[in-house]
Amino acid sequence: AGTASLVVERPRPGSSLRCCARTTSFPQPVVMSEPKAPAPPPGDTYKGWLFKWTNYIKGYQRRWFVLSNGLLSYYRTQAEMGHTCRGTINLATANIVVEDSCNFVISNGGAQTYHLKASSEVERQRWITALELAKAKAVRMQAESGESGQGSGTRNSEVQSTLRTLGSKVEDLSTCNDLIAKHGSALQRSLSELEGVRLGGDTGDKIRQVTERATLFRITSNAMINACRDFLALAQAHSKRWQKALQAEREQRVRLEETLEQLAKQHNHLERAFRGATVLPPPLANPAGDSKVSGKGDVSDEDDENEFFDAMEDVPEFITVPADPKYHRRSGSNVSGISSEIGMDDQSVELVRKRRTRIPDKPNYSLNLWSIMKNCIGKELSKIPMPVNFNEPLSMLQRLSEDLEYHELLDKAAKCQNPLEQLCYVAAFSVSSYSTTVHRTGKPFNPLLGETFELDRLHEFGYRSLCEQVSHHPPAAAHHVISKRGWTLRQEITLASKFRGKYLSIMPLGTIHCIFEKSNNHYTWKKVTTTVHNIIVGKLWIDQSGEIDVVNHRTGDRCHLKFAPYSYFSRDVARKVTGVVTDKDGKAHFVLSGTWDEKMEVSRVMQSSRGGGENGTEGKQKTVYQTLRARELWKKNPLPEGAETMYYFSLLALTLNEQEEGVAPTDSRRRPDQRLMEQGHWEEANAEKQRLEEKQRSMRREREREAARAASAAEDGVPQDNYKAQWFERTEDPTTGEVTHIYMGGYWEAKEQASWDMCPDIF
């Protein structure tokens, strides 16, 4: 086969421009089929099964992986994609390494590493190709996102400006072409006239050479001008297409934003409608099922952190049915089985001070949470620098003091003669502390090391509370409450938190102690996991899930409480809490039920029996409790009017940051960034927050230098952190054996004497 082509030969010095037509013959090509790597399907999303290394016991486990928008996420099953993501890694900062024919590793520098194995070499190459393409796109989008603030209008104006410049340059070239043509014609006429003059042979050759070169120059100039015109026309044509594409992208983005907003509204409406229409099922409506608890002991095969399962998989551990009427007749009017004496509210409250009931309304400052947290996936929440826009004007110490919102439950418990009845009130108190969190999506301020908060309600409610931040990394707060009504509460809470991409997990670590003076009953329990959902899109909402064992260490009695995780598919009431109070022999005496955001009820167990197995199977029986009619143990107080504009604070929360005289100089009320935020000055609060954090870092560096100097002088040479809390002493707890901080006294005496010389300057 031949191909005709026009060949323009570059003239040698002293020769003329020659154009000639050639016909070049090419042999027929031999087609070789080279092996190609299988390409992933087109599009931005790639899904499939891979084997992920979990641990040395379970080895590789099959997981469903989804690659979308530069993020690689995985799930245990495809069904989990709607609610539970097991992990996500951002490919923009990840390294992809192929180990062998089927194995490869994805790592983002140490925080996350996935050891993966495909079913075949072909499948592995599909994933590698998809991952490399997604990584390149993610890196490109990340680089472009820094310039996105200028907006598409700026980019459009830049294109127009460039086109105008190009047009101007082409016009200049066209003018030059006209001048070249004009002067070239004059030159050629002059040369033609010279040819007519009789001159020597050498002179004639020179003139012909100049004439040829002038002709070549004119041809080249014309070609250049024509090429520039073609370029301008092409650029203008593409510019129109670019503008149309840009406008289409802009319109699509607006439509997507509107759609997301509509979906969020519909989601909220459906959720309200669902909750409004949901009723408790009949006592025996559900067949007996598996009594396993998905939340407890079911540790992920990837790590030891909490996981959240859909409540549809979670069946109740027991069933309650009305007891025989003879028990009601025997119990008389006391249908609940709880002493009426302790059910009476204490009417001897003396209000000695009028406290505030409002704070300044929350300003309407918009800020995208995802834009800040997208680079913080997998990190500890306390180590993420956050602007005050996501905070509420309270510190974590004040938030911890809100556990005393329903202190009257412990007042009633102190009056109980029966330890099992007392345990019911303590269990209700442990649930009531979560009621203030249902709408509180704002993050409390991380306390500075040495920061304190006192809550003195001795004259109003009979108790005094003191909190102190005793450690910064990990963040830990010690809390001690003494009541003149016969009880003491103490705890040390360390927060472990992880940002998972779609939700935020907050795991409080530590034990809460409650001791009653009269009976010497000593109760302990822990807190459940708090989850903040819809971090990426939609309205933020909070859920509590997990289990609590409230144990009486003197008698061996215990109450096992279960916080059911929220599920769209569950027919049960949302935020449900159930519990059983048993003695040291395991015999059930009371059943508790309710929700952690509304109320808790208690019923006395008159008789219990094992239910039938599920579908006739053995080992999957539930206990059926015959109970007396339920009585209310606790009910949530209504929120103050206008709470939605005041961070959804309760009446107690509204008073926590109120200015008070005589408090320690380290008290949270004196924290300037928190005070500025409460007053609505968020920019100043952000600047002050950065100043305080830098001051704290410099103080820590100074302590480290002192520790290093002390270590160099010591025999072992090992640096030791020399920081000691002001009001709490680190010691071993005699009841649990845990090393914790216990109040050593002296704060209230120092307050009476206004002697704060030992307090550090942290603000």
TrEMBL record:
SUPFAM superfamilies cross-referenced by the UniProt entry: Oxysterol-binding protein-like, PH domain-like
Position of the signal peptide: none
Main localization of the protein described in the UniProt heading: membrane
Basic and acidic residues composition bias: residue spans: 667-708
Span of domain PH: 43-136
Organism: Scleropages formosus (Asian bonytongue)
Keywords: Coiled coil, Lipid transport, Lipid-binding, Membrane, Phosphoprotein, Transport
Record region (Disordered): 142-161, 279-303, 660-721
Membrane disposition: Peripheral membrane protein
The keyword Transport is annotated on this UniProt entry: yes
Protein name in UniProt: Oxysterol-binding protein
A family per Pfam: Oxysterol_BP
GN (gene name): OSBP
